[in-house]
Design goal:
This protein has 14 helices and 20 strands. The protein is of the alpha+beta class and 478 residues long. It folds into two domains: 300 residues, Aminopeptidase; 125 residues, 2-Layer Sandwich (Alpha-Beta Plaits). Helix 4 packs across helix 14. Pfam families: M20_dimer (PF07687), Peptidase_M20 (PF01546).
Length: 478
């Protein structure tokens, strides 16, 4: 490890509790994007983060990026926060990204701890529970911890740092691509490489560097029938029911074994090469790691490589929910007049947003016609993100490899991730940058799920990792 980092590492150890309190404050702000009831909380989170950056010496500001329609109303999109610290032409310039918005969370969904209160496991495991703890407030706070350590120690950062934090990632990063394009020759000019910490280890023991992401297409099947909800005793058996049509259509998308039923989609997938298979075989991973992450043995197969490919390099289709149906506690004998079925497809190289959407719409339109229903059906793409892969031989990856070895005492796995961060491809394509995904959290953190958590050790060593990565980046040759 670069000798200059020693004081930084010592500071992190001495201020562990302070850093946890910073994360606790961030988690306490329920910045749920995509829900009109949380607009003020998202704005409060943006303002709090802005003031944190300014207090740490960052030249930071909020930027408006337009409006969107939310629950039928035109509202401002959450602002993008940009910041810069250092402008030395003799140093490399690193661009970092994170998002301050979070997924919805309700205690009645099955949480064992308050959703928006950072709760440390009373058993002493080191787990810290709370929405956003790992996705993505924990990593952002780790970067703030790095800045604080250098400010308090009176040390300059080893690199120039540019920051971009958004508040709409959990809902497709709407308009962020336009903002990046508009600032390509402005704020983002001069960046040498980029680091994003918004993903996770494959397991609970082995750190990793991630060089690929699946993309995503998120769809709605909208089935509309009568102009009002109806009494099933009066009208049941007399009309085409929208819910019945929808359930049948959704059953035509994927089998219980995960096989996607949309014709033509499999034909787009690139064949697996021997070299690619060897990379998957080398990853430190066992099917038991997924068992631990999901709380049971529900894997489709016990074969390691097949499971990894199912997560990283093959497409998947998941059914997410039905809107418009009765879902409250108790009984209600209603025939809903309009329902929306929600599902997504994870994209891999060769599967583009357009090519997959064309297949999906064609297939579902044909299947609906087979029903002979008098209802109306529309298939809509909500949001999409293309898949992404980076050059993992780039000097940024080499620097992160060295930093990981120094902080964790072991070499990282090189992985592709099953999740989607659509903006990754925007940064890579628009700015022409190599993008490194450097995770802080573990594979069992439960992002987007109940009892989302971040381990105390990952948070503190993650802070060390991000800081050490900067030092290695400064020292390594291009």
């Amino acid at each position: 490890m670069a000798a200059e980092a020693s004081n930084f590492l010592k500071y992190v150890d001495e201020h562990e509790e302070d850093f946890i309190q910073r994360l606790a404050k961030a988690v306490s702000i329920p910045s749920v994007s995509g829900n009109i009831g949380y607009i003020k909380d998202v704005e409060a989170m943006a303002e709090w983060l802005l003031q944190q950056l300014i207090s740490l010496g960052v030249k930071a500001e909020k930027r408006a990026i337009g409006q969107h329609k939310l629950e039928g109303k035109d509202v401002d999109l959450p602002p993008v926060i940009i910041g810069q610290l250092g402008n030395d032409p003799n140093k490399k310039t690193l661009l970092i990204y994170g998002h301050y918005d979070v997924q919805p969370a309700l205690y009645e969904d099955g949480w064992h701890y308050p959703c928006f209160e950072l709760t440390q496991d009373p058993s002493g495991s080191g787990r810290m529970y709370g929405r956003g703890s790992t996705d993505d407030k924990g990593p952002i706070m780790a970067w703030l911890n790095v800045l604080e350590a250098h400010q308090k120690l009176g040390k300059e950062l080893p690199v120039n740092l540019k920051m971009c934090f958004e508040g709409m990632e959990e809902n497709g990063s709407e308009n962020l691509d336009k903002f990046i394009e508009s600032e390509k020759n402005g704020f983002f000019a001069g960046a040498d490489c980029m680091c994003i910490s918004d993903n996770y280890w494959l397991n609970t023991e082995t750190p990793c560097l991630t060089y690929g992401l699946r993309g995503i297409n998120y769809y709605e099947i909208r089935v509309n029938g009568p102009d009002r909800d109806l009494h099933s005793g009066v009208f049941g058996g007399t009309i085409h029911e929208p819910m019945t049509d929808l359930i049948l259509l959704m059953s035509k998308l994927v089998t219980p074994a995960g096989e996607i039923l949309i014709p033509g989609l499999k034909d787009l997938i690139a064949p697996v090469t021997d070299e690619e298979r060897e990379k998957f075989e080398a990853i430190h991973f066992g099917v038991k790691d997924i068992h631990a992450a999901v709380g049971g043995d529900q894997t489709l197969t016990n074969d390691k490589v097949t499971t990894l490919m199912g997560r990283m390099r093959n497409p998947s289709l998941s059914l997410h929910g039905i809107e418009g149906a009765f879902s409250a506690t108790g009984s209600k004998t209603v025939i809903p007049c309009s329902v929306k079925g929600k599902f997504s497809i994870r994209l891999v190289p060769n599967l583009t947003i357009k090519s997959v959407t064309d297949l999906v719409v064609k297939y579902l339109d044909a299947e609906f016609k087979k029903l002979g229903s008098k209802n109306r059906c529309e298939v809509v793409l909500g949001h999409g993100g293309e898949p992404w892969m980076a050059d993992f031989t780039h000097y940024s990856y080499r620097a992160a490899h060295k930093a990981t070895e120094d902080v964790y005492g072991q070499a990282p796995d090189y992985t592709r991730e099953g999740g989607s961060i659509p903006v990754t491809l925007d940064f890579a394509d628009i700015l022409g940058l190599n993008v490194l995904l450097l995770p802080v959290g573990r594979g069992d953190d439960g992002a987007h799920s109940t009892d989302e958590k971040l381990d105390r050790d990952n948070y503190i060593r993650g802070t060390k990792l991000l800081g050490s990565y900067m030092y290695e980046l400064a020292a390594i040759s291009k």
